[in-house]
Amino acid sequence: MEGAQAISRAATLLRVVSAAADGVTTAQAAQRAGTARTTAHRILSSLQEAGLLDRDRATGTWHLGPEMFLMGALAARRYDFVETARPAVRALADATGESAFLSLRRGDESVCVLREEGSFPLRSFVLQEGTRFPLGVASGGLALLSFLPDREADAYLDRADLVPQWGEAHSAERLRERIRLTRTAGYATNPALILEGSWGMASTVFDQHGRPAWAVSITGVETRFRAERRPHLGQLLLRTAHQLSTQNRLPHHGPGGGPQPGP
């Protein structure tokens, strides 16, 4: 059990580092991973020795290391859905003028794996490649949660406590209401619940078994998401999500919520 716990902590710290585009300090990594600073430093240092992490001597921040690059390059050959989806996400950014994204469901999280910039000069930077949110947080996470089977969605809401970090808007009761609205509209809307003035909308991409596997989303400033424009944006999102859902080159999810290679 001690070995398994150490591996779990190391994996958590790797995810924490991967989610920080500018790197993280030891104290930040420990806080985000929910572990003691001394424990975090010991594990981070071990990962550095293995080449999985690198540390900037000037700033003391941790970054992904060269071995992670090599592993990622090899994994990309198996999980090629990003490049498959890129033209459709690019077309969505062109059609809306907003930043467009593809996020992957990984267990109880959504992970941004692709960002394409729109032409509108004012942008939101809530979402970057590598950013992780719990299901139900941000438009992509809400879109994924909303189309899980009722039993799975209820089980998640029963065990997840999002309020301490994300506020009362992410209580189970409030999320259930937003799930209902998302299912009715077909797409999710995040009315600046993460960052003031930053709106987002998303639609669910389903795998070959009809399960929510990815989310395609757009973000931008509030004035670009007025009530009269949102139905048009929603239709563009639904069209893009349907296109991606029917591309059988996209991998499908296994029972654990991670991508599996398609046939």
What attributes characterize this protein structure?
Arc Repressor Mutant, subunit A; alpha+beta; 2 domains; Beta-Lactamase; globular; transcription; WH-like_DNA-bd_sf; 6-stranded antiparallel beta sheet; WH_DNA-bd_sf; transcription regulation; two-stranded antiparallel ribbon
What's a quick, concise take on this entry?
By secondary structure, the chain is α+β, with helices and mostly antiparallel strands.
Structure notes:
The chain is of the alpha+beta class. The chain has two domains: 2-71, Winged helix-like DNA-binding domain superfamily/Winged helix DNA-binding domain (Arc Repressor Mutant, subunit A), CATH 1.10.10.10; 79-253, 2-Layer Sandwich (Beta-Lactamase), CATH 3.30.450.40. It has helices at 2-18, 26-33, 37-49, 66-78, 81-96, 138-146, 150-159, 163-166, 172-185, 230-245, and strands at 53-55, 62-64, 99-106, 109-116, 132-134, 188-191, 198-206, 212-221, 252-253, 259-260. It has a six-stranded antiparallel beta sheet with strand order 5-4-3-8-7-6, with helices on both faces. The protein has a two-stranded antiparallel sheet with strand order 1-2. Helix 1 crosses helix 3 (37-49) and helix 6 (138-146) packs across helix 9 (172-185). It starts with a helix and ends with a strand. Residues 244-263 are annotated as: Disordered. Residues 67-250 form the IclR-ED domain. This is IclR family transcriptional regulator.
